[in-house]
């Protein structure tokens, strides 16, 4: 980044930064007389108004402003044994709209990021097909392609919250989700090219990384809306998102979206691979586990205010905003409560409403400065309603790990600080 | 690739073709296997073959020169592959007759087989031992392109013409699908990648291993993370024990307590373990480790239990019946689909009864030592 590094506001956390900004504001107000003529930021000539900035080639690939250096993916080191097989989280609290910037999409790898030269890339289709095929990158780019916006959520998102409030920040409680526009070839097109035999009922998708990730997908889904994608938000996939090619399985758990996709096998039964037996199965209170829980349920979360995005402006107009999504299609409605779920108001959805994509909602209120208990509750086009934590625990116990889509509560205190809480 | 090397390769290749009529008949595979004894010091072939001083030879027929995974080739051999040299009867015969002349600067320390009949016998045997050959038209299509357009720059994304769709267009393979894009996968290619094993045993390789050998292998390759007895170290997965804990407050989910099928163990160890050195174990090693894991989980009681593709289907893990289909949408919170309550939904003011700050496990500079509960796995 060159020169701009010098201007980074250090390694301070966003909260520390906000707090000091607030303190600075208070100091200015206290000594208001010293700038009675006006705000020195206006009345005095600033450096950026006098001196030349960087030229056009300072950053051939542009980076966010140095003042946004705190808006980054973060991990929870205690959660996994080794960062090579781990996860980090999207900073939802600092984002707006429905599209996640490529560099902020959460990562989950099982054996690190595979580095594959597109010239060395091969995609094989085998099994119950008329012609087993091998495609190169240039082959894939000769098929008719589509652009689709989809959310991708890890089934374990919010999985640390089953037993109660644990992580103070929606980045950590809900940050295993992102939403980008994919460009790719419909999986159906590639399967038809090989000719699926009538005995084919399931598809195995396999990655080229050192975990050789595998998941079984019902053929019906594979022929419906899955994409073999090579671009996200208009540019090539990021390495950590499966460059050069990943599978998109819209509305279904992120683990099935195999990255560094190298093979698709058609079979007549599921394969019972590690990621669909020992993992990604949902243990219930009675000791029985659900398997093949592919669908991501209707869910929402308020992203601001939230613990990492406290209210810094005192009473008056306050924008409450968040995200809602459902693997079943579009979001039809989001209700927001400021009193812990006693009373609800329907929020305003803004931006495109696309099936199996994030939806952005807003509730613009006049804050009286009193404590708030913020909740959001999403409904999808199929009529499914986001459940409460108690409802989910009553149905499943607390050992499911996966598919926790329950309603989140944030407590906003009078000083604007926010905490992850549960309410009765 | 330098011009002089390219010329040398072209000439030698032409010489190779001249050999064709001399060895085309009456090959003797048994004799070929004996000849291969002269190659064995450096080259492995067959199940689990690994690179030695020379590259392993599985799938050699139809393979681009210089393309065996993880083998450190000479630049000359890599260049020949990049130029489109693909191994088949013709090219291998030319190479084996005069290795130093065929590709100048390659590092195979072998003088060559003087008798064309020996070459033919060797190749006849090797074709079977290495997993077969693709259809002859495919090989020739790849070659004719290379030799005919030797000066053309490789197409981006298609460095090896044999692997790209160009070949499909040039071959006599019947067209497939709507677009006729991509090319037919060879049997050797499918065999190289399709190693998945299903619960019914489909995909298991022929082989066997016993728990005693498995213990030694486990100690060497697995115990650093999983512990000597599968108890797990740090947050690495626990593999053994835990039976009867699935209804406990803190269940221990292991192969013996939770996993439904043994095939998953074999498949996963073979494809992804040891962590950071995947595919390093041969098929018998994987049988041995799987046998040891059965022993650690008390699924078998003999400490010298031998597991093979023959008896694999007889083994059932204790929790095979512990799973049911997804019925989330029948749960009360979804089944109702009632219009949600909008006002006075709770009696009286709401009280906070749990706070994240109490646990204090959110990553921050101040609490690096704190560990919360839960996992993403």
Please tag this protein with its features.
heterodimer; A: Sulfite Oxidase, Chain A, domain 2; 3 domains; five-stranded antiparallel sheet; 8 helices; 23 strands; disordered N terminus; B: 377 residues; mainly alpha; Cytochrome Bc1 Complex, Chain D, domain 2; 2 domains; two-stranded antiparallel sheet; 4% strand; elongated
Account of the 3D structure:
The complex is a heterodimer of chains A (424) and B (377). Chain A has 424 residues and is of the alpha+beta class. Chain A contains 8 helices and 23 strands. Chain A is globular, with a radius of gyration of 24 Å. Chain B folds into 2 domains: 3-193, Orthogonal Bundle (Cytochrome Bc1 Complex, Chain D, domain 2), CATH 1.10.760.10; 208-314, Cytochrome Bc1 Complex, Chain D, domain 2 (Orthogonal Bundle), CATH 1.10.760. In chain B, strands 2-3 form a two-stranded antiparallel sheet. Helix content of chain B is 37%, strand content 4%. Chain B: InterPro entries: Cyt_c-like_dom, Cyt_c-like_dom_sf, Cyt_c_1A/1B. Chain B: Residues 1-26 form the signal peptide. Chain B: This is C-type cytochrome. Chain B: One of its GO terms (molecular function) is metal ion binding.
């Amino acid at each position: 980044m060159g020169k701009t590094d010098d201007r980074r506001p250090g390694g301070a956390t966003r909260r520390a930064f906000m707090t000091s900004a607030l303190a600075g504001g208070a100091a200015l107000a206290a000594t208001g007389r010293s700038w009675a003529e006006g705000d020195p930021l206006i009345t005095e000539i600033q450096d950026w108004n006098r001196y030349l900035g960087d030229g056009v080639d300072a950053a051939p690939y542009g980076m966010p402003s140095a003042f946004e250096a705190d808006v980054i993916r973060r991990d929870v080191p205690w959660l996994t044994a080794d960062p090579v097989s781990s996860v980090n989280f999207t900073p939802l609290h600092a984002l707006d709209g429905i599209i996640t910037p490529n560099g902020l999409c959460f990562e989950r790898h099982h054996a690190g990021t595979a580095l594959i030269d597109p010239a060395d890339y091969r995609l094989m289709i085998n099994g119950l097909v008329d012609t087993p095929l091998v495609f190169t990158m240039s082959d894939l780019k000769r098929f008719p392609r589509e652009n689709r916006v989809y959310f991708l959520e890890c089934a374990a998102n919010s999985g640390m919250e089953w037993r109660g409030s644990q992580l103070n920040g929606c980045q950590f409680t809900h940050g295993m989700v992102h939403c980008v526009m994919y460009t790719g070839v419909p999986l159906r097109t590639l399967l038809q090219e090989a000719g699926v035999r009538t005995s084919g009922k399931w598809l195995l998708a396999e990655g080229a990384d050192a975990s050789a990730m595998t998941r079984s997908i019902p053929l019906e889904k594979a022929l419906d809306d899955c994409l073999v994608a090579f671009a996200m938000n208009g540019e090539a996939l990021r390495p950590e998102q499966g460059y050069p090619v990943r599978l998109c399985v819209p509305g279904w758990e992120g683990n099935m979206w195999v990255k560094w996709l190298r093979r698709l096998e058609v079979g007549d039964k599921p394969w019972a691979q590690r990621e669909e037996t020992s993992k990604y199965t949902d243990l219930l209170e009675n000791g029985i586990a659900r398997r093949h829980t592919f669908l991501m349920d209707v869910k929402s979360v308020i992203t601001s205010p939230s613990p990492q995005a406290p209210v810094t402006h005192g009473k008056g107009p306050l924008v409450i905003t968040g995200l809602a999504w459902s693997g079943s299609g579009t979001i039809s409605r989001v209700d927001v409560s400021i009193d812990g779920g006693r009373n609800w108001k329907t929020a305003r959805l803004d931006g495109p409403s696309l099936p199996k994509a994030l939806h952005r909602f807003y509730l613009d209120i006049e804050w009286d400065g009193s404590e708030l208990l913020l909740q959001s509750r999403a409904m999808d086009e199929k009529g499914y309603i986001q459940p409460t934590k108690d409802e989910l625990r009553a149905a499943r116990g607390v050992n499911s790990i996966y598919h926790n889509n329950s309603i989140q509560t944030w407590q906003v205190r009078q000083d604007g600080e926010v905490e992850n809480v549960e309410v009765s | 690739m330098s011009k002089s090397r390219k010329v040398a390769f072209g000439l030698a290749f032409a010489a190779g073709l001249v050999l064709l009529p001399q060895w085309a008949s009456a090959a003797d595979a048994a004799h070929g296997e004996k000849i291969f004894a002269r190659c064995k010091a450096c080259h492995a072939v067959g199940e689990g073959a690994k690179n030695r001083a020379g590259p392993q030879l599985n799938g050699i027929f139809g393979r681009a020169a210089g393309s065996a995974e993880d083998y450190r080739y000479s630049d000359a051999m890599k260049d020949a592959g990049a130029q489109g040299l693909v191994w088949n009867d013709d090219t291998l015969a030319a190479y084996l007759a005069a290795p130093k002349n065929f590709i100048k600067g390659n590092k195979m320390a072998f003088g060559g087989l003087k008798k064309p009949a020996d070459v033919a016998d060797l190749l006849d045997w090797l074709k079977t031992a290495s997993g077969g050959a693709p259809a002859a038209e495919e090989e020739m299509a790849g070659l004719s392109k290379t030799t005919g357009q030797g000066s053309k720059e490789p197409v981006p994304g298609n460095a090896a013409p044999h692997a790209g769709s160009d070949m499909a267009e040039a071959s006599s393979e019947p067209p497939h699908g709507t677009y006729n894009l991509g090319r037919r996968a060879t049997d050797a290619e499918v065999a190289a990648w399709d190693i998945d094993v299903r619960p019914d045993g489909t995909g298991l390789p022929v082989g066997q291993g016993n728990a005693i050998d498995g213990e030694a292998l486990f100690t060497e390759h697995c115990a650093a993370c999983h512990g000597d007895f599968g108890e797990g170290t740090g947050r690495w997965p626990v593999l053994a024990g835990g039976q009867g804990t699935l209804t406990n407050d803190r269940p221990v989910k292991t192969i013996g307590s939770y996993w439904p099928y043994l095939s998953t163990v074999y498949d996963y160890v073979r494809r992804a373990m040891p962590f950071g050195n995947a595919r390093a174990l041969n098929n018998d090693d994987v049988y041995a480790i799987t046998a040891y894991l059965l022993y650690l989980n008390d699924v078998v009681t003999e400490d010298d239990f031998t597991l093979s593709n023959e008896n694999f289907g007889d083994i059932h893990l204790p929790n095979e019946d512990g799973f049911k289909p997804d019925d989330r949408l029948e749960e009360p919170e979804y089944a109702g689909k009632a219009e949600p309550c909008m006002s006075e939904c709770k009696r009286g003011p709401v009280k906070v009864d749990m706070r994240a700050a109490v646990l204090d496990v959110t990553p921050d500079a101040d609490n690096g030592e704190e560990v919360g509960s839960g996992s993403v796995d």
